[in-house]
């Protein structure tokens, strides 16, 4: 079921059918209508995300600094074992939908014109802990499988000593290693697209509607199926911003991650419509 999306979403949308943080809004298995959006929607999400980021700059950049610190830590710890570093860095993107949960909540509060303590924002996962826990477990399992697959690809192409970080960066520019680059990229894209498909709107939906994890993940896949062009463009923009953040020695993550996190909330608001109330409700 689809509905046409208007360019701007009303401020009341986030609160529609809301009956309190602890009450389920969508019964398990009840899929909300998925909207059809235009190709330019991801750029609107980024503009709206930038507005939220500047409005709640102190909280947003706290998360940004945390992302940057995590990236720097991974690079430093695995500096001489890039087969692990690359897997961990890529896994950083796979786990991103869960790590950005506080940013979704900040944008949710802005949409509802609410202000809560920062401690409540940090522990917002408690609102729907069981289902968010299931979703994070799914992401963790995918991450572990990806880490193993990454090591297998490295082992197939590097039968001797694994390269260091500097050595690896030099080797990927060597045309002789084109086969490795293609295989590693294809395997990584498979995992990234799968995670993207099940997480486009999952956590925002679980936060906003107390939705169960399975329905939220399937709704994300439905959103991608209904809007392949805009959603794949959104995936490209997320990847580009994240890569830019890493390429600037992780400093860019301070801005890129809050921007993506806030924009993801607006993607959810555009893609998922309120579930119609049954006759006699409301």
From TrEMBL:
Pfam families the UniProt entry points to: DUF2189
Annotated keywords: Membrane, Transmembrane, Transmembrane helix
Signal peptide (from-to): none
Keyword Membrane among record annotations: yes
Segments passing through the bilayer: 61-78, 84-106, 134-158, 178-201, 235-260
Start and end residues of each stretch annotated as Disordered: 1-22
Name of the protein: DUF2189 domain-containing protein
UniProt source species: Viridibacterium curvum
């Amino acid at each position: 079921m689809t509905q046409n999306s208007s360019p701007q979403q009303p401020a009341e949308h986030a609160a529609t059918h809301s009956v309190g943080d602890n009450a389920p809004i969508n019964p398990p298995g009840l899929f909300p209508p998925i909207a059809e959006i235009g190709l330019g929607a991801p750029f609107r999400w980024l503009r709206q995300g930038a507005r939220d980021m500047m409005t709640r700059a102190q909280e947003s950049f706290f998360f940004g600094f945390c992302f940057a610190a995590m990236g720097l830590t991974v690079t430093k710890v695995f500096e001489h074992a890039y087969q692990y570093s690359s897997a961990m860095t890529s896994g950083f993107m796979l786990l991103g939908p869960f790590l950005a949960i506080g940013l979704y909540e900040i944008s949710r509060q802005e949409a509802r014109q609410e202000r809560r303590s920062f401690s409540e924002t940090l522990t917002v996962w408690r609102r729907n802990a069981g289902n968010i826990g299931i979703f994070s477990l799914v992401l963790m399992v995918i991450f572990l499988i990806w880490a193993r697959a990454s090591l297998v690809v490295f082992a197939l192409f590097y039968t001797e000593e694994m390269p260091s970080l500097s050595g690896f960066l030099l080797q990927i520019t060597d045309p002789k290693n084109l086969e490795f680059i293609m295989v590693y990229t294809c395997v990584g894209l498979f995992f990234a697209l799968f995670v993207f498909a099940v997480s486009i709107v999952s956590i925002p939906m679980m936060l906003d509607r107390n939705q169960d994890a399975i329905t939220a993940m399937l709704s994300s896949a439905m959103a991608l199926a209904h809007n392949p062009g805009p959603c794949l463009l959104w995936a490209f923009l997320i990847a580009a911003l994240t890569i830019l953040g890493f390429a600037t020695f992780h400093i860019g993550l301070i801005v890129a991650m809050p921007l993506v996190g806030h924009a993801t909330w607006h993607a959810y608001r555009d893609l998922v419509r309120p579930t119609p109330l049954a006759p006699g409700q409301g």
